[in-house]
Amino acid sequence: MNDRIELRDADWLWRQISTEGVELSRAEPMLASFFHASLLEHSSLASALAFLLAHKLGDRDMLPMSIRQVCADIYRDNAAVVAAGAADICAHFDRDPACVDYATPLLHYKGFHALQAYRVAHALWLSERRSLALFLQYRIATVFDVDIHPAATIGSGIMIDHATGVVIGETASVADNVSMLHSVSLGGSGCGPGRRHPAVEEGVLIAAGAKLLGPIRIGTGAKIAAGSVVLADVPAHSTVAGVPARLVGSAVHTGAHTGSETQPALSMDQGLNGD
Prior knowledge:
The chain is α/β, with parallel strands linked by helices. Helices cover 41% and strands 13% of the residues. Helix 1 runs antiparallel to helix 2 (32-40) and helix 7 (110-126) runs antiparallel to helix 8 (130-144). The longest helix has 18 residues, at 10-27. It is globular and about 50 Å long.
């Protein structure tokens, strides 16, 4: 198995990131204080995430210290939130050739930052602290240009690459190991009760600018081509493209990574045919 996709838990990952932090600080002394505050001062991934999100999202209405405490409380009571964040870091490392170490998404990728802030907001939403969850949604949209409703459900091992302009609506669901790029919308159709937004199954790749609208289902391992407008269900392991999107080929691809032949989110192959 390729060492970029072996199982890695949050503790193992944090030890690796801490080692990278030391090396980064030595390599670029001008950023030594940044690396120290963001990485080296912390004893766990949860602590570093709480600090990072507080630093990014704090404002005059809710100071960084308060956001940091909210995040710390969520991470203390919901180990799965931290585990999902660890899986998201690994997703970037595994799928993005520009990501050369595990520290990079944590330090620099706003798609990762927005997703981790959503995870905190989602936990607040589930615990009925909805005003605070919606406040965080507003801050996430303002700071990162990514708008995810805190009621949406999103799995782990998610890569939102570049991320600018991503919108995920209230009743949307995204399964594990999905990759999406900038300007993707999981938008609603209708204004009645019930599900109004897409359900995206495992291993799906959604390319830049794709718009998925309404209570449609995107099957396991499907591929949505860049700029497509998807208004109907997409079968598993198929590729759709166009406005409106239509079936153009298979999404099955024999790639270098284990599982990528049936999950295009892992191979990131954006061609229209699996072959």
